[in-house]
Amino acid sequence: MIKAALSVLLVLVALSSTFGKYIPKSGKRIPQTLSRGWGDQLIWAQTYEEALYWSRSRNKPLMVLFHLEDCPHSKALKKVFSEDDKIQKMLDEDFIVLNLVYETTDKHLSPDGQYVPRIIFVDPAMTVRADINGRYSNRMYAYEPSDLDLLKGNMEAAKKLLKSEL
């Protein structure tokens, strides 16, 4: 009797954890360590070079997210970012995603400095989109948890620019 009750409880817990989270069209994915908590259901590129290749071959914009694990600003943004279903859905369907906890050798990805969190968009032609930025003049690619609507708008702009420039 106890085994049956525990089994039912386990099934209920498993089911309740799946509700409320965005699940991609292709089905639930196994969480990847590459997500680092930013979206376990997304397929994350491993390196910048791999992300550029995927972006070009799949004709999707690339979103590069720079952060640090112990940065309070990165942690705060990660929490709201990973819980926002619209962002997660748009990233899964329309973007190639890469998150980095280190700087790349490509200086185009730090046009106004090396700070975190920083989100840069790159189009499939491998052009860093300097025209898609956040609301701060001194940290053009920084976003705070309260800037999610701006980030969603910038993601839409990256998709529209891709279609209009083809």
Strand order in space, largest sheet:
2-1-3
User: Which structural category fits the helices and strands?
Assistant: mainly alpha
Share in β-strands? 5-15%
- What is the makeup of the main sheet? 3 strands, mixed
Oligomer: single chain
Report what the structure shows.
There is one protein chain. The protein is mostly helical and 166 residues long. Helices cover 40% and strands 9% of the residues. It contains 5 helices and 3 strands. The protein has helices at residues 2-18, 48-58, 72-83, 85-94, 148-164, and strands at residues 62-66, 96-100, 118-122. A 3-stranded mixed β-sheet has the order 2-1-3. The termini are far apart. The mean pLDDT is 86.
Can you give keywords for this protein?
166 residues; mainly alpha; three-stranded mixed beta sheet; 5 helices; 40% helix; globular
Task: Give the structure's gist in a few sentences.
The chain is mostly helical and 166 residues long. The chain has five helices and three strands; from the N terminus they run H-H-E-H-H-E-E-H.
Question: Which SSEs are present, and which pair or pack?
Answer:
Elements: H1 2-18, H2 48-58, E1 62-66, H3 72-83, H4 85-94, E2 96-100, E3 118-122, H5 148-164
Parallel strand pairs: 1-2
Antiparallel strand pairs: 1-3
